[in-house]
């Protein structure tokens, strides 16, 4: 009986549970919007290190500029030029480089009598504190005297005529014969004369003595030996002696002919 009552109780509970309406379920709240993922920008590539032109290396291999480079290194001016070339904020550098022959054309005492400060100023006078291409000299020539790295009192006058650029200091007026290197911020141009400012040279420096003339191309390349010289002299003496003896014999013959002729005339008389 107890077992039947338990089964009955369980069945009644099941009926009650099934007949009880289910409680309304609350609607699920929509998921919260996700914040967009912000990707950090990729780091910019590091700027490439600027390429600096080594002026000493350039002058040592480009053209016959050994004398000018030697003066730059002995005075330390090459370091000033290099610093100006490396600092692009200053505007670069333009260098007028004389050839070795330009220094050889001047008398050796021209630079030997200069003080160290004068020599430095002379070298610094060969550079402008800014990069200029050949085309820019047309505009620059209209601006009048241009200050050099030697200071505002050391100026150059540049002229531009149909593509020909001349660089004038007090005692020289060379033209730019070629462009050795011209890529911003460095320009190096070859000139045929040393720039000689009047602040250093009060008069035109003397030129070196002219070289001895070359031997005549028609002359024999082989010098005559002493023996051959003596033999030629002996031959000439013999030739003169022969001429003299011949003339003497001719005189004697003429003399005797005259006597014979006169004697014949006497006999006829």
TrEMBL record:
Residues 215-235 have a biased composition (Low complexity). GO terms for biological process: plant-type secondary cell wall biogenesis. InterPro entries: FAS1_dom_sf, FAS1_domain, FLA_A. This is Fasciclin-like arabinogalactan protein 7. SMART domains: FAS1 (SM00554). Belongs to the fasciclin-like AGP family. The keyword Membrane applies. May be a cell surface adhesion protein. The lineage of its organism: Eukaryota, Viridiplantae, Streptophyta, Embryophyta, Tracheophyta. Residues 1-24 form the signal peptide. It is a lipid-anchor; GPI-anchor. Keywords: Cell membrane, Glycoprotein, GPI-anchor, Lipoprotein, Membrane, Signal. The gene is LOC100281475. One of its GO terms (cellular component) is plasma membrane. Residues 207-244 are annotated as: Disordered. It comes from the Eukaryota. It is found in: Cell membrane.
